[in-house]
């Protein structure tokens, strides 16, 4: 039994007079104790909303609907009332946010913000709490922690603030840590420090970590399992090495092709994904990535692609996945891909009849 | 290389910003030495990449090059013309030949101007194009070059996606037919897949129009991808300048080594194998930079002699220019990094302390 089991999580924002937004549309993934799981995707793919929904931090507003399950150690986090959720949050499950300056309270000293967690969850008071807070700051690599406790967030540098935030998150030795773009606001050398710190914390305490990021490089160095999100759904799940070596979903292939690599030679052109994130098909009408996909076939439109599970534990949501180089394709894929090619001619008429029209051609960018 | 091959030449450029205190009487209590003695030259038709962490002065250098921030001292020559002493009117006509692309297209485009108006403004200012039709023709050609459809002309910036907005920003720079384009973080506000589109567009434009670029970015991989030569800045000065391939394969300055090892590579095999040099602490304050080599407070290879008291000059080592006293000995492996600075600890009293500003009283008194 996994530590966190997210099953068919969906978040929709409905507003009167406007189209309902399916920010998260049936996301499922699981996190084992001590495992580092990555959620990767571009802006708008629903990765942050997923984490906020799990933590119960989405703003309570009419029109917000959260469905599915997020079972943490036997309890469904989505069904909890506010009080018991507050008990779990910060103690068993903690979160690190992207921008440390806006997630720390600017008018309260760092020390008070760290001890607040200790007081709330561990019942520590006074000198004991201060001592523990100083020890925490020391643990995350903040020099002279006693002095820093009295300082305000603006007096710390960006890297220090992120460290303080991490100190608050790990104050109660949570079993699950969710880090939402923890290093995006930081410089590379500071990013390297923070990532090293997170790795160390995970290694030492056996904390499970959900790493939400858009940076494939960060994922390559940290995560055990990676979920690639597109338009609110997981399109590919794989262990780290297979994902980078043999990406199957065309979106993953596209992402990897569009990142310039430091160790690549000069003059190699990038292979960007045509179009932009706004060119999506809604999932019920077919694969959301189809309008931008280079491996598009007729089966992509009409109904959402099923999740294909392969024997080595990876899965992808695609009817015409990128072939595995060298090796013969596994069983599940053979039927899917060759079937697609063979049936293409025969089923064109049927596919056309079932859908409103052919897939729009990938444009250079979408029309406003 | 002959004189005419160099489009931009910068000599000992300094940009210092005064720090002021006091409510009624502003007293200057110090200077932030954003750029402090930079020499560089950009050959015509090539791309010079400038990298460094936030606060290292790379953007200020780019702006000072175009005289958007008046330099404190030093020379900037553009095609043989000295810009720092050029009268305002002449400078304005020179600006046609050097344009800028900004980071955030949303805040650098006027939301109340449509695309046609944005693109026409520059043409009118510089008196390009005989009449309205002629200007329309120029604008049309520019739109084609950056891959925007003609119907974009009547639209407003908010109607476009991030990638398209950046294309409008590029079109605005391009419409005047410049020779030099300074691109300050041109892709960092964009998504990965869109980033690649814009990077390819910049490449294409350079091939077709023979543009010269100064690309400023914090993303080393992007800079390395588009640049011929890369300059690495630290605290207002260049620490290393090298052809972009060499910079990754043979970084010479300790800071470059640390920077290169910190950039994540999207490949687990590389990530697991490579050695990381973790720097201690943060960037020191540019208002009160360390004496001697600016990097010596964080340098894993810092030596007791020279590093703390003698500022190293850029010197040529095998095709690169490096500002380090011990670069050769580090390269041969004769000097080993200290264990202590490779950990995440910040020695006491080192680095910035934003509450206190203790700057030398005279600008330039760091030597």
TrEMBL record, chain B:
Transport as UniProt keyword: yes
Pfam families per the UniProt record, alphabetical: ABC_tran, oligo_HPY
Region (Disordered): 344-367
GO biological process: one example: transmembrane transport
GO molecular function, one term: ATP binding
UniProt entry keywords in alphabetical sequence: ATP-binding, Nucleotide-binding, Transport
ABC transporter domain residues: 10-260
NCBIfam families in UniProt: oligo_HPY (TIGR01727)
Protein family according to the UniProt entry: Belongs to the ABC transporter superfamily.
Official protein name in the record: ATP-binding cassette domain-containing protein
Lineage: Bacteria, Bacillati, Actinomycetota, Actinomycetes, Micromonosporales
């Amino acid at each position: 039994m996994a530590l966190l089991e997210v099953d068919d999580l969906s978040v929709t924002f409905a507003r009167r007079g406007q189209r309902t937004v399916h920010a998260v549309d049936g996301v499922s993934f699981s996190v084992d104790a001590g495992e580092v799981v990555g959620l990767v995707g571009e802006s708008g793919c629903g990765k942050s909303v997923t984490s906020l929904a799990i933590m119960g931090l989405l703003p309570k507003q009419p029109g917000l609907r959260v469905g599915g399950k997020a079972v943490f150690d036997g309890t469904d986090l989505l069904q909890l009332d506010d009080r018991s959720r507050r008990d779990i949050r910060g103690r068993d499950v903690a979160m690190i946010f992207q921008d440390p300056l806006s997630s720390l309270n600017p008018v309260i000293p760092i020390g008070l913000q760290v001890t607040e967690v200790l007081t709330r969850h561990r019942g520590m008071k006074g000198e004991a709490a201060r001592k523990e807070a100083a020890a925490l700051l020391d643990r995350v690599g903040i020099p002279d922690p006693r002095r820093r406790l009295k300082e305000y967030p603006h007096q710390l540098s960006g890297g220090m603030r992120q460290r303080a935030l991490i100190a608050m998150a790990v104050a109660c030795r949570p079993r699950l840590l969710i880090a939402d773009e923890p290093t995006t606001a930081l410089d590379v050398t500071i990013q390297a420090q923070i990532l090293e710190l997170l790795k160390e914390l995970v290694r030492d305490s056996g904390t499970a970590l959900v790493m939400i990021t858009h940076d494939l490089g960060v994922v390559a160095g940290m995560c055990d399992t990676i979920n690639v999100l597109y338009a609110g759904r997981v399109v590919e799940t794989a262990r780290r090495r297979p994902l980078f070596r043999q990406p199957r979903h065309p979106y993953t292939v596209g992402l990897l092709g569009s990142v310039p690599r430091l160790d690549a030679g000069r003059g190699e052109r990038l292979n960007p994904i045509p179009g932009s994130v706004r060119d999506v098909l809604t999932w019920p009408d077919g694969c959301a990535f189809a309008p931008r996909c280079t491996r598009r076939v007729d089966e992509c439109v009409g109904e959402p692609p099923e999740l294909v599970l392969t024997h080595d534990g990876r899965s992808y949501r695609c009817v015409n996945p990128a072939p595995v180089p060298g090796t013969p394709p596994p069983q599940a894929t053979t039927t899917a891909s060759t079937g697609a090619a063979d049936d293409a001619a025969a089923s064109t008429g049927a596919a056309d009849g079932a859908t409103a029209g052919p897939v729009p051609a990938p444009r250079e960018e979408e029309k406003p | 290389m002959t004189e005419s091959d160099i489009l931009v030449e910068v000599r000992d450029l300094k940009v210092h910003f005064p720090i002021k205190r006091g409510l009624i009487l502003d007293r200057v209590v110090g200077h932030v030495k954003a750029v402090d003695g930079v020499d560089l030259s950009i050959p015509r038709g090539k791309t010079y990449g400038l990298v460094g962490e936030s606060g290292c002065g790379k953007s200020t250098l780019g702006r000072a090059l175009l005289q958007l921030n008046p330099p404190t001292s030093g020379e900037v020559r553009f095609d043989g013309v000295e810009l720092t002493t050029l009268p305002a009117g002449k400078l304005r006509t020179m600006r046609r030949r050097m344009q800028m692309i900004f980071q955030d297209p949303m805040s650098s485009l006027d939301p109340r101007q449509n695309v046609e108006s944005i693109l026409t403004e520059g043409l009118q200012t510089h008196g390009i194009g005989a009449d309205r039709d002629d200007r329309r023709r120029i604008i049309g050609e520019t739109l084609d070059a950056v891959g925007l459809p003609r119907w974009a002309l009547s639209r407003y910036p908010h109607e476009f996606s991030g990638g398209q907005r950046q294309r409008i920003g590029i079109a605005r720079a391009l419409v005047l037919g410049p020779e030099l384009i300074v691109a300050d973080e041109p892709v960092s506000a964009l998504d990965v897949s869109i980033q690649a589109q814009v990077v390819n567009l910049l490449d294409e434009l350079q091939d077709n129009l023979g543009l010269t670029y100064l690309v400023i970015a914090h993303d080393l991989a992007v800079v390395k991808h588009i640049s011929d030569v890369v300059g690495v800045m630290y605290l207002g000065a260049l620490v290393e300048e090298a052809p972009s391939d060499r910079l990754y394969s043979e970084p010479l300055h300790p800071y470059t080594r640390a920077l290169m090892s910190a950039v994540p590579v999207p490949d687990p095999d590389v990530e697991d194998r490579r050695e990381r040099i973790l720097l201690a602490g943060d960037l020191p304050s540019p208002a009160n930079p360390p004496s001697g080599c600016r990097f010596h407070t964080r340098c894993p290879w810092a030596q007791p002699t020279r590093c703390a008291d003698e500022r190293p000059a850029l010197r040529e080592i095998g095709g690169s220019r490096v500002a380090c006293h011990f670069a050769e000995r580090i390269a041969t492996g004769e000097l080993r990094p200290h264990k202590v600075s490779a950990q995440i600890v910040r020695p006491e009293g080192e680095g910035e302390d934003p509450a206190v500003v203790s700057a030398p009283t005279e600008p330039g008194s760091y030597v």
